[in-house]
Amino acid sequence: FKPEMTYAVVGQEEKIVGYRDLKVNLCYTPGSLMPYFEMSYASQIPRKLGYPRPMDVYKMMREKHFVDFLPNRAAFEAQCAKDARRFRPPGVKVHEYRAPAPQPRAVDATLVPTTGTRLDAKTATSTPMATYEIYECAYDTPGWVEYSRRLQLFLLWYIEGATFVDEDDAQWRFLLLFEKRPLAAPTAADPYICAGYVTCYEFFAWPDLTRPRISQFLIMPPYQAQGHGGRFYDHLVALFRADRRVCDFTVEEPNESFHVMRLRHDARCLAPLLRERQLGPEVLS
């Protein structure tokens, strides 16, 4: 999938100059997010034609990463296979749910048919269901800092004005969403695919309360517009409501799509309370 913005890496004009037919791929293993960079082009444009020196794309990408790139595609494919066998999300699992596997895509032959499949009216083909799991991490969760350093570059591609969080600040809370995809082989471990990421900062509220602020909220492009953002948000709200220390919570500079999603889910959350207290329509005016 393609980035929505690139200025944080390649500059405000979002252009890479000095090449003909340039192609840049930044690949990540689906679970551990180990990066692999590859670049190809037909030729470099000679400087005698008045063009500036070709930009060092590898250097620009490398400066935003805190880990080394995998050396070649063979190493990347080997790491993908290793992920499928061994990778497990960091942190503590706090929630799971069932939902259709990412669409649109062809039915994956490695997926195990389940009783939860549904029939698409247009294509008359079964849509496989998947399990999604939410994990919570803190700054001192084993393995979290290393994983966060690989994950946070996605924020620059998809969140306007995103910045990296302070790794040593204990007030940060992190939640991760993973798709758990079953394999056909009964003895194989189910591989995990990173599907979303949320950061929250807990501010102090007098006298001994907290006021969490949702800072960054990202659903990976293959999982967008499929209800996962709403489920992720609902779980956050449930966490906040269950914590007696939380007096309220806010969102840092939400974009329009998040704002609309939040309004819908807040209204859905409040509707049972309105019925329970027998409040009339005038309350909403």
Question: Can you describe what's shown?
Answer:
Keywords: Acyltransferase, Transferase. Its EC number is 2.3.1.48. The chain has 285 residues and is α+β, with helices and mostly antiparallel strands. The chain folds into two domains: 7-79, Histone acetyl transferase 1 (HAT1), N-terminal domain (Histone Acetyltransferase, domain 1); 89-253, Gcn5-related N-acetyltransferase (GNAT) (Aminopeptidase). 27% of the residues lie in helices and 26% in strands. The strands form four sheets. The chain has a six-stranded mixed beta sheet, covered by helices on one side. A two-stranded antiparallel ribbon has the order 1-4. Helix 6 (228-242) crosses helix 7 (256-276). The chain starts with 6 loop residues before the first helix and ends in a 9-residue tail after the last helix. Mean pLDDT is 83; it is low at 105-125.
The number of helical elements comes to 7
Question: Strands across the major sheet, in which order?
Answer: 5-8-9-10-11-12
Quickly give the CATH architecture of the largest domain.
Answer: 3-Layer(aba) Sandwich
Q: Count up the domains.
A: 2
Distance between the termini: 43 Å
Q: What radius of gyration results from the CA coordinates?
A: 22 Å
Class of the largest domain, according to the CATH hierarchy? Alpha Beta
Oligomer: single chain
Enzyme class: transferase
Protein name: Histone acetyltransferase type B catalytic subunit
EC number: 2.3.1.48
Pfam families: Hat1_N (PF10394)
